[in-house]
Write a structure and sequence with these properties.
The protein has one domain. It starts with a helix and ends in a 28-residue tail after the last helix. The protein has four helices and no strands. Helix content is 35%, strand content 0%. The longest helix has 19 residues. The chain is globular. The chain is an all-alpha fold and 125 residues long.
């Protein structure tokens, strides 16, 4: 999961929109968007890094981020107790919705879009 967060951070640091390339990155981005509003309260007024960013009229529109940055929100169905077993690609509901393999063992398998990252890339320090 640390790699998933790091890869999304790398996108942002290089001026790219974060584009999840596997289920783990989708979950990481959902968690980041969910946590983002409370992070604004923690910005130290003496830290000018945040205030130096260019302003945009849609800044802090977290719902829009959620709409724009994902192809779907299937991974969030894992938190619905009524859908227990939906992660199994052989399950009826999973197949009917065309969700794919959401079992934890498959979370790090690349989607194939955007291009998969080199699995031998180094870690952030």
């Amino acid at each position: 999961m640390a790699r998933a967060f790091a890869d999304l951070t790398d996108d942002l640091e290089h001026g790219r929109w974060p584009r999840p390339s596997c289920t783990a990155e989708e979950m990481a981005l959902h968690l980041a968007i969910e946590d983002a509003p409370s992070c604004l309260d923690d910005i130290d007024a003496r830290d000018t890094t945040h205030s130096q960013l260019p302003e945009h009229r849609d800044d802090y529109d977290w719902d829009a981020c959620s709409d724009l940055l994902f192809q779907d929100h299937d991974v969030l169905m894992l938190f619905d107790a009524r859908l227990d077993g939906i992660e199994d690609p052989d399950g009826d509901v999973n197949q009917r919705l065309g969700m794919g393999d959401l079992r934890t063992a498959a979370w790090f398998e690349p989607f194939g879009y955007p291009d998969a990252l080199d699995p031998k890339r180094g870690f952030r320090r």
